[in-house]
Amino acid sequence: MEQFTGSFTQQEPIPEAAIEAANAVLRHGRLHRYNTAPDETAETALLEEEFAALTGARYCLAVASGGYAMGTALRALGVGPGDKVLSNAFTLAPVPGAIAALGATPVLVEVAQDLTIDLAHLQSQIAASGAKTLLLSHMRGHICDMDALMQICRAASVRVVEDCAHTMGAEWRGVPSGRHGVMGCYSAQTYKHVNSGEGGFLVSDDPDLMARAILLSGSYMLYPRHKAAPPPAAFENLKYEMPNISGRMDNLRAAVLRPQLALLPDRVARWRARYDVLEAGLRDLPGLSLIPRPAEETFVGSSFQFLLPDWPAAKITSFLARSAQRGVELKWFGASEPVGFTSAYRHWHYATPEALPKTDRILAGLIDMRVPLTFSLEDCAQIARILRAEVTTAFQAPETAAEPVTLASGD
Q1: Is 99 helix (H, G, I), strand (E, B) or coil?
Q2: What separation in angstroms does the CA of 303 have from each of 80, 95, 177?
Q3: Which of the 8 DSSP states describes residue 306?
Q4: Cα distances (angstroms) measured from residue 22 to each of 255, 259, 302, 337
Q5: Percent of the chain at pLDDT above 90?
């Protein structure tokens, strides 16, 4: 039996140019974004300018994490205690967490078969809740029909904030992910598409929202030092109103990230090649359903999902255990308890979730796998062969008691 020996949590090394840039910051010691020498532009300000250009946004703010970016976007929109905020039921915990942390109430929306937000249920939840904000998660890199979603939201005066933690570099009909709503949020955490350990971005074309976000991030009165920010006049009245909730990015992380932005198109292409190998290896397999990808979507295949529709839990846990024994680490969104970074909406008691039967059925058979760029195409082909064999074995086997299973913990 084939055995995979690669690591599902090993990233590519930080590029040499990024290491040199980080060393330069360490040597001069000016890590704080507002601690600059005369006539010096901070690495963080340069990063914001470059990320704005990459996404086509007028404004950009670099922050401490993707979660902080979401919370700041909602605060900038005026979301507060008691407000209702729509969001996907299929996402990771930081998304409803960003809503609940403001004292607001998440209003969860069913997931469709392609793992995107269910647009029909979104319409009914808008009508039932009266919510005027949607925190839309492009979970695991799956982008819904953004034209249809924005038409629904505009008609109901619902403001859209996009969580693009898994879609940096992706597009819908040629429009970069994060550029349909009023604000887009991105992550630079280790398992994302650029790596600074932790970090995030906010982009917007709205000068009022971005001025609010910059003040919230802890700019004090130093906002003129930003290069991808609204003009100082946008801050004049707001500076007396917005609290300081410090979450700035520092110059060290910005220095690590700047050279990586230029590598993003190549990374997207390499992830897509690995995704295609996995998809080809699992196509037309009895008992397994692949996730359809629409032609309008340019996606980043940094993770891979498939469904084991209507499989009993015992059979799925047996499959997971056998795959793990052969070196293939999988995550299951149908597990009864949260494990590592993986949880389902029913685990978020702080969000007071209501039952979502369509989502329950999909999550019960949803299998997820990270695809680091340290995997070669041959690695992906081997993983597909192992999974194909184990799915066939489990699907054809009679039902038995569940084997113990250890799920992967990587985000």
Answers
A1: helix
A2: 33, 18, 17
A3: E
A4: 5, 11, 26, 40
A5: 94
Residue 397 is predicted with a pLDDT of 84
Could you give the CA distance from residue 254 to residue 272 in angstroms, rounded to a whole number?
26
Q: How many residues does the chain have?
A: 411
Residue 304, burial from CB neighbour count under 10 angstroms (0-12, 13-18, 19+): buried
Over residues 354-381, the pLDDT tens digits come to 999 999 999 999 999 999 999 999 999 9
What is the C-alpha to C-alpha distance for residues 143 and 163, in angstroms, rounded to an integer?
A: 11
Same domain, 212 and 342: no
> Under a CB-based contact definition with an 8 Å cutoff, are residues 291 and 378 in contact?
no
Give the pairing type, strands 303-307 and 289-290. antiparallel
Same domain, 248 and 322: no
* Interatomic CA distance for residues 312 and 394, integer angstroms: 11
Q: Tell me the C-alpha distance between 218 and 32, whole Å.
A: 12
DSSP annotation of 109 reads E
Q: What is the pLDDT of residues 394-406, one digit of tens each?
A: 998 876 544 444 4
How many H helices and E strands in the chain?
A: 12, 14
Q: Note down the domain range covering 69.
A: 16-261
Q: What is the β-pairing status of strands 105-109 and 84-88? A: parallel
Residue 231 burial by CB count (10 A; 0-12/13-18/19+): exposed, middle or buried?
Answer: exposed
Encoded tokens for 33 = 């974004």
Of the three residues 261, 288, 313, the one that is the final residue of a domain is: 261
Is the pTM of the predicted complex or chain greater than 0.85? Answer: yes
29: pLDDT strictly greater than 70 = yes
Looking up tokens 């039921």, which residue turns up?
A: 89
Helix (H, G, I), strand (E, B) or coil at 307: strand
Instruction: Identify which has the larger pLDDT, 14 or 400.
Output: 14
